[in-house]
Design brief:
41% of the residues lie in helices and 17% in strands. The chain has 253 residues and is an alpha/beta fold. The chain has two domains: 192 residues, 2-enoyl-CoA Hydratase, Chain A, domain 1 (Alpha-Beta Complex), CATH 3.90.226; 47 residues. Strands 1-2-3-6-8-11 form a six-stranded mixed beta sheet, with helices on both faces. Strands 7-9-10 form a three-stranded mixed beta sheet. It has a two-stranded antiparallel sheet with strand order 4-5. Helix 3 crosses helix 4, helix 4 packs antiparallel against helix 5 and helix 8 runs antiparallel to helix 9. The longest helix has 16 residues. It is globular. It starts with a strand and ends in a 10-residue tail after the last helix.
């Protein structure tokens, strides 16, 4: 259901249920939670990439499981839906989207930090077409990622947003040709891995908080982030490498 592998400092997490359009059932929710546990817990994993097998990134919740009364299996205590949409994370996660990401699948993408998508990708919250509500974070994360009017259009019509328009509006970081999303996401992850990992995580935490915290709180978080980085071995390595005109060798501690 979910595959996990570590390539250098990049953890690759793959949704592997293509025969069901990568719909989230209990096994996938538990698998994603375990994969995120590995990403967060392994010292050598600095950045995660979330991809999927098959022509669909994810169709969201497995409606067959819900119809059979097993909807609670799709939610974990720490991660919420799919084991990830409410999960507190510290390491960056890049979504590699090479097909439709709909309903809960779109909410999984919105829970990531960066998005690389191919031109055959699309993003939608079609819940209103089935008298449902997108309760996995989409209703508030989408208007943070898109202009309010566009987010409202996507939510109220239930119609998908093509990757080209999503890229033009800032939801997608990089737009690539079909079949190239994963490699482009890995390339982006490698660019992140070139930087001091503790500094990356500390900086990410402040940017993530900027969606809802006030300026005073963000000033305090910024100062805490700097204090955290100042206690690491890498804090001295960065300036030293610059002076010595060489690439820094990060320890991540």
């Amino acid at each position: 259901m979910v595959e996990y592998s570590l390539s250098g400092h990049i953890a690759v997490i793959t949704l592997s249920r293509p025969e069901a359009r990568n719909a989230v059932d209990g096994a996938m929710a538990r698998g994603l939670e375990a994969a995120l546990d590995n990403l967060e817990g392994e010292p050598d994993s600095w950045v995660g990439v979330l991809g999927a097998e098959g022509p669909v990134f994810s169709a969201g919740a497995d409606l067959k499981a819900i119809a059979a009364g097993r909807g609670s299996e799709l939610v974990t205590a720490r991660g919420g839906f799919a084991g990830m949409v409410r999960r507190e994370r510290h390491k960056p996660l890049v979504a590699a989207v090479d097909g439709p990401a709909l309903a809960g699948g779109c909410e999984m993408v919105l829970a990531c930090d960066l998005v690389v998508a191919s031109t055959r990708a699309s993003f939608g919250l079609p819940e209103v077409k089935r008298s449902l509500v997108a309760a996995g974070g989409g209703l508030f994360r989408l208007p943070r990622a898109l202009p309010r009017a566009v987010a409202m259009e996507v939510v109220l019509t239930g119609d998908p947003l093509p990757a080209e328009r999503a890229h033009a509006l800032g939801l997608v970081n990089e737009l690539v040709e079909p079949g190239q999303a994963l490699e482009a996401a890995l390339a982006l992850a490698r660019r992140i891995c070139a930087n001091a990992p503790v500094s990356v995580r500390a900086s990410r935490s402040v940017v993530a908080a900027a969606d809802c915290a006030d300026d005073q709180t963000l000033w305090e978080l910024s100062e805490q982030a700097l204090a955290t980085v100042a206690r690491t071995e890498d804090f001295a390595e960065g300036p030293r490498a610059f002076i010595e005109k060489r690439q820094p060798v990060w320890k991540g501690r």
